[in-house]
Amino acid sequence: MFIGDVKYPCNFGFMVEYIPEWSDSSFKNGLMFMMMNDELYPKNVRTTTFNSELPDVLSENSAMRNPVVNKKLYHTESEKLFEIMADKTYGKERDAWYDGTFQIPFHEINDDRWSVFIISDGDNIKLMSGEWKDEQLIYHDELEIPSKKYFDTIKALEDFYNTLC
User: Fold this and answer.
1) Cβ–Cβ under 8 Å, residues 157 and 3
2) Integer distance in angstroms from the first to the last C-alpha of the chain?
3) Nearest to 47 by CA among 135, 98, 111, 130
4) Neighbours of 137 (CB within 10 A)
């Protein structure tokens, strides 16, 4: 199932599929990808345990649910903004995870050696992706969408999760 705005261009959403045969009474498993600018994250197929992944992604203190609103920072040049968010998350040396303020906590993406950051100016949302290569987080892509479109998609993802509970 695709969750998101299906009108072209569809630049943000989620592809999710609950697979009962992979699940039991404790675990609800399936596949989940985030789509950003016609690319899927994670890049490789990974089993998603919805009842452990989605509570983190959808929690009230998650960057995905409550992105930082900072107009000045939002309008910073893209690669500089990416570095600021990466520094806050992993430190300047990229040696540990320090702060999830800007990072979308989608474990399957992170485990696939990608990071997606988020920030808002109040009216719009900016998502930025980066790939880990040789212990460096390299800026890859960004998407800017209206906040309403973004939050409607997150609400639909939450509705999907609630059907599994």
Assistant:
1) yes
2) 17
3) 111
4) 22
Number of Cβ atoms within 10 Å of the Cβ of 162 = 10
| Two tokens, residue 94 | 């990229």
Q: Enter the pTM of the model.
A: 0.93
DSSP 8-state assignment for residue 19: -
Assign 114 to helix, strand or coil. strand
Query: How do the domains of the chain map onto residue ranges?
Result: 2-164
In tens, the pLDDT along 39-97 reads 999 999 999 999 999 999 999 999 999 999 999 999 999 999 999 999 999 988 777 77
Nearest CA-CA partner of 153 in 39, 5, 1: 5
What is the per-residue DSSP string for 43-107?
SS---EEHHHHHHHHHSTTSTTTS--B-HHHHTS-HHHHHHHHHHHHHTTTT-S----SSB---H
Residue type for 135, please?
A: E
Place of tokens 């695709």: 2
